[in-house]
Structure formats: structure tokens, C-alpha cells
């Protein structure tokens, strides 16, 4: 009698465990992100950082070529390459949507080419290759971010992920500004270099205005946004003076400061 009760309890436990596993598996397969890996909002932020890192690596390579902020740029470049690789692995493990996974594979291949080009001795021809590859990585990373947002059918979650993506994009834009500023100083003085910088400045300005008017901002978020706005109002004209030049270190330092502040702000949005 005692053995039969134990057998019944064991069978019941096995059935409940199996049912629970089936529920979890079914739930996970219906989502764009696997629930047992990384939270949805967090993976949007991680994918968003890849955009910034694609621009930071190229910027650092160009600054090293110009021999400005050499020590910081070398350290930053190595850290950015390492983080991009680790983030990409996290995204691979977390995303199950086939279309997004296909783009992840493309970004992975492009990143291999990117790393090889970064190791090449600096010259203007290779600098242009690095810039082009950074654009490819940026486009691919943006596609992943957009895909993650689009697949989210929960309206409340969707609003939050949109804000996280927009806030995170500011990190990329600040690094992008520095990338094109130093590219022009190095001698890549075509119209596209100037246009891309000015476009990035304009988008940053519009995004900052949007974030500062967001009704869900906490006091901490507003305080940090005000700090960014104060610095931005001082330095953005320096960036627009790309054709005049002469301020590569100020551009390097101020865009890094803005990137750090926007990274902190994005993490605060992620916690809402």
C-alpha cells in the first residue's frame, strides 16, 4: 500500500513537471526572444549598444590614425571589440525569430571583416574600408533592434522598448558624430562626411527633445537629461564646425561624456 502511494505520487509529479515544461516551451517558441535567456527590454538595450560600438570602434581606429587621444582610443577600441563580440553571442542565444537570426548571422560575418580591417596598418584607403564596414554593422544592428520592437505585441512593452531604443540610439549618434568629425580632419573630405555628421547632430537634437518631454521620466532621468542638454548646447556647434576643424580632442572627450550619460539614462529607462 505504501509503495503504491509512492508510485502514484512519483507519476503525478512526473506528469506535472512534463506539463510545465511543455507550457514553457510553447510560450518560448511563440516569442521573438527566449524567456529563459535575456529579458526582452534588456535584449533591446544590448542590441542597441551594438549600434554604438560599431561607431566607437571605427572612431577609435581613426583617432589612433590621427594620433589624437592615443592612449584612451587604444584601450577603448579593444574594450569595444570585446563587448561587441560578447553582446552578439548574447543576442544569438536569446533571439529565436528566423528573420532576425538571419541578420545576426550577417552581422557576425561583417564583424569578422571589421576585426581584420582594424588590425591593418592605418592608411586612408583602409580608413574608408573601416568606415564602410561600420556603416554595414550599424545598419544590421538597427535592423535587429527594429525587429525586436516590431515583434513585441504588448502595447505597454512596445512603448517602453521604443523609448529604450531611442535613448540608446543617442549613444550611437554621439560616437557617429566623433567618427565623421575625425574622418574629415584625416582627409576624407567629401560631401558625405559633412552631411552624415550634420544629419547625426540634427537627429540627436530631435531625440533629446523627445526624451525630455517623455511623461514617464523619473526625477533621476530628468536630472541626467538636463545634464546632457546643458553639455549639448555648449558643444554641438563645435561638431557643426567640422570643416573648420581644430577641436579633435574636445570632440572626442565631449562625445564620450554624452555617450556615458545616455548609457546611464537608457539603463534607467530599462528599469521603469
Contiguous runs where pLDDT drops below 50 for at least 5 residues: 1-30
Helical/strand content category: mainly alpha
Q: Could you tell me the strand content as a percent range?
A: under 5%
- The whole-angstrom Rg is 22 Å
Number of strands: 0
> Which range best describes the helical content: under 10%, 10-25%, 25-40%, 40-55%, 55-70% or over 70%?
over 70%
Quick one: biggest sheet?
none
Name the overall outline.
Answer: globular
Mean pLDDT: 87
Query: Separation of termini?
Result: 55 Å
Number of helices: 9
Tally of separate domains: 2
The helix/strand order is: HHHHHHHHH
Topology:
Blueprint: H1 2-29, H2 40-66, H3 70-94, H4 98-118, H5 124-151, H6 155-186, H7 191-212, H8 219-240, H9 248-270
Brief summary:
This protein has nine helices and no strands. It is mainly α and 272 residues long.
Keywords:
272 residues, 2 domains, 0% strand, mainly alpha
Amino acid at each position: 500500500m505504501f509503495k503504491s502511494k509512492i508510485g502514484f505520487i512519483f507519476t503525478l509529479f512526473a506528469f506535472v513537471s512534463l506539463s510545465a515544461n511543455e507550457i514553457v516551451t510553447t510560450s518560448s517558441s511563440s516569442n521573438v526572444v527566449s524567456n529563459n535567456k535575456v529579458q526582452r527590454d534588456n535584449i533591446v538595450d544590448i542590441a542597441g549598444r551594438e549600434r554604438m560600438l560599431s561607431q566607437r570602434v571605427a572612431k577609435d581606429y581613426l583617432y589612433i590614425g590621427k594620433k589624437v587621444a592615443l592612449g584612451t582610443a587604444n584601450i577603448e577600441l579593444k574594450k569595444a571589440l570585446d563587448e561587441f563580440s560578447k553582446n552578439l553571442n548574447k543576442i544569438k542565444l536569446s533571439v529565436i525569430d528566423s528573420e532576425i537570426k538571419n541578420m545576426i548571422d550577417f552581422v557576425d560575418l561583417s564583424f569578422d571583416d571589421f576585426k581584420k580591417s582594424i588590425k591593418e596598418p592605418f592608411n586612408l584607403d583602409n580608413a574608408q574600408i573601416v568606415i564602410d564596414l561600420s556603416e554595414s554593422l550599424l545598419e544590421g544592428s538597427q535592423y535587429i533592434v527594429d525587429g525586436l520592437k516590431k515583434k513585441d505585441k504588448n502595447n505597454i512593452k512596445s512603448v517602453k522598448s521604443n523609448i529604450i531604443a531611442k535613448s540608446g540610439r543617442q549613444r550611437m549618434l554621439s560616437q557617429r558624430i566623433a567618427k565623421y568629425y575625425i574622418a574629415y580632419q584625416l582627409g576624407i573630405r567629401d560631401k558625405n562626411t559633412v552631411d552624415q555628421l550634420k544629419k547625426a547632430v540634427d537627429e540627436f537634437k530631435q531625440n533629446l527633445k523627445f526624451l525630455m518631454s517623455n511623461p514617464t521620466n523619473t526625477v533621476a532621468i530628468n536630472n541626467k537629461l538636463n545634464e546632457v542638454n546643458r553639455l549639448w548646447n555648449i558643444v554641438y556647434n563645435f561638431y557643426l564646425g567640422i570643416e573648420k576643424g581644430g577641436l579633435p580632442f574636445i570632440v572626442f572627450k565631449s562625445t564620450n561624456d554624452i555617450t556615458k550619460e545616455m548609457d546611464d539614462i537608457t539603463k534607467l529607462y530599462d528599469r521603469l
